[in-house]
Amino acid sequence: MSKEKVVLAYSGGLDTSIIIPWLKENYDFEIIACCVNVGQEDDMTEVKKKAMLAGASKIYTEDVTDNFVDEFVFDALKANAVYEGKYLLGTAIARPIIAKTLVEVAHKEGAKYIAHGCTGKGNDQVRIETVIASIDPTIQIIAPWRIWDIKSREDAIQYAEERNIPLTVTREKIYSRDQNLLHISHEGGHVEDPKNQPNMKELLMMTKTLQEAKDEPEIVEIEFFKGKPIKVNGKEMSGKEILSTLNKIGGDHGVGVIDLLENRMVGMKSRGVYETPGGTILWYAHSELERLVLEKDVQHYKAQIANKYAELVYNGMWYSGLKMAFDGFIDKTQETVSGKVKVQLYKGNILSAGMESPYAIYNDEISSFGFSELFDHHDAEGFIKLVSLPFKIKAHCLGKEYLDKTFKSKEA
Predict the structure, then answer these.
(1) DSSP 8-class letter at 35
(2) Which positions fall inside the Arginosuccinate synthase-like N-terminal domain (predicted)?
(3) Binding residues for ATP
(4) What global pTM score does this model have?
(5) Which one is catalytic: 75, 153, 176, 357?
(6) What is the pLDDT of residues 123-143, one digit of tens each?
């Protein structure tokens, strides 16, 4: 009788490297490793070799980078989704397509179980399992970090050493990193304590430090069509090529590094350093173009939705009804978000350097302080009277005593 199969979300990092032997020691499963390539810079030949040596019977290396950029990164870009004002959601955006691919492999292999290496304190366990439940609620989850006796990354290293599992992390450089084409995150080690200044020279992998960044500014032009970038410096590219190109350019100028003390969805705070060079350029340029083409109420209301959208993505609700309803609204707003945006990059900074669009709703003749046939300065008098009318009524009704009390200068 053949064994039951489990599909393991495999990266070759510390957690997933020890999960294979742990599964073999605790379950009678055939282990199918699945490494989903979303643009991380791993040698897939080495990843395959490592998984097989650890005891997997088979490994899939599924390259979904194009779909990741076109269908996930660019959806978040169109929404201007930024979590807590800083984080461009690099890890959170990747988890849905990773989980979706795991389900596809499970179906192909006839596996009833999916295992992952997400910790019980983190957000990724929710992101992965919510997507799996959305696609196939019959699949059962095995989450070793919620079961085993391993309590820390130091324990995990010891477990690996006892079983002669090769590792790239050490007790001295114990950072937990997550990389895809949009970003790389750095957590753990000295980064965890908010009072410590991160050693950027030691941490950064995609981006140069400000000291090492180019000494001359550079102007980059990005062209958008209906909210999606289609060209860089006049050259038409795929989404994957655009993000790769801007990662290199932005990385050379030290753009897109943030130090964030964030609120995890499970209720605790955690601190991480994130590198998102190309994404930061795209988010900035896209937001600037929207200022040129969206009418005031649409722009303002979309900004409110962007905050909630980012929260939904962060919390793993990619396939929720609310998030998908927001997608419909956002796609409608993007119908006129086409045009070219120039940005200047220098020592971690991004500055606007000009933009144009056939849908621009800015007219310098109207907006200038000079004469315009569409606007007469005298019209402002009636407008101001109407706007201020409620305040006049309130003042008249409440009387002088109330006004004196309300607007009396505070004593020192």
Answers:
(1) E
(2) 5-166
(3) 9-17, 117
(4) 0.90
(5) 176
(6) 999 999 999 999 999 999 999
